[in-house]
TrEMBL record:
It is found in: Cell membrane. GO terms for cellular component: plasma membrane. It comes from the Bacteria. Keywords: Cell membrane, Membrane, Transmembrane, Transmembrane helix. Pfam families: FliP (PF00813). Its main location: membrane. This is EscR/YscR/HrcR family type III secretion system export apparatus protein. It is a multi-pass membrane protein. Belongs to the FliP/MopC/SpaP family. One of its GO terms (biological process) is protein secretion.
Length: 221
């Protein structure tokens, strides 16, 4: 397989596409929701830099790979079959685009499954209003231009809903500790610092990491 017929403009486009690939990968996988939930957990516990960002991002990447593994395998199978058929042909831009087209269906199914119907309807209606009238009928509700933003908004919404539930018990602990300190006249002590050991004890006692990670993974089943 050889690459031929690549103009300088096409090469620049490919380089830009590769540079944007990590950003796109973050937005079309489970990474966004997982990293937001873990960050909200850290804030709820009252910890500033523990776990550090590198640990949160690393854990989010590992869990995202785990969640997206079936999609990766199915995409690889789709592309692999077509690659064998095209092995004896020169790889042109059109051929590469066609090859990518064969592998996009598993990802599209994942995005459709985990995006809100209301969000897809909104973004479809919005893009049809933005586009010129003669192009509006070309956009479907299953197109990536509609599905990707709908998926991203749905993931952020779900992440903040989970974050709200995480915050509640720790907020109760903060309020109880603050009232006790106020009743004892110990207003010079920081309620946040005093309540931190109790919040950590509660989180460890209920196996918080296990339950949270299991729950995040199961949201994609």
């Amino acid at each position: 397989m050889e690459f031929s017929g690549l103009s300088p403009g096409t090469i620049i486009t490919l380089v830009v596409g590769l540079a944007l690939a990590p950003f796109v990968a973050v937005m079309v996988t489970s990474f966004t929701k997982i990293v937001v939930v873990l960050s909200l957990l850290r804030n709820a516990l009252g910890l500033q830099q523990t776990p550090p960002n590198v640990v949160i991002n690393g854990l989010a990447i590992i869990l995202s790979i785990y969640v997206m593994y079936p999609v990766f395998i199915e995409t690889y199978d789709h592309i692999g079959e077509q690659t064998q058929e095209m092995a004896k042909e020169d790889m042109t831009v059109d051929t590469a685009i066609e090859l990518i087209g064969y592998g996009k269906q598993p990802l599209k199914e994942f995005l459709l499954k985990h995006s809100s119907e209301e969000e897809r309807a909104f973004f479809l209606n919005s893009i049809q209003r933005i586009l010129p009238e003669e192009r509006r009928e070309r956009v479907n509700k299953d197109d990536f231009i509609v599905v990707i933003p709908a998926f991203t908004v749905s993931e952020l919404t779900s992440a903040f809903q989970i974050g709200f539930l995480i915050f509640l018990p720790f907020l109760v602990i903060d309020m109880i500790v603050a009232n006790i300190l106020l009743a004892l006249g110990m207003m010079m002590l920081s309620p946040t610092m005093v309540s931190l050991p109790f919040k950590l004890l509660l989180f460890v006692f209920i196996s918080g990491w296990t339950k949270l990670i299991h729950g995040l993974v199961l949201t994609y089943v």
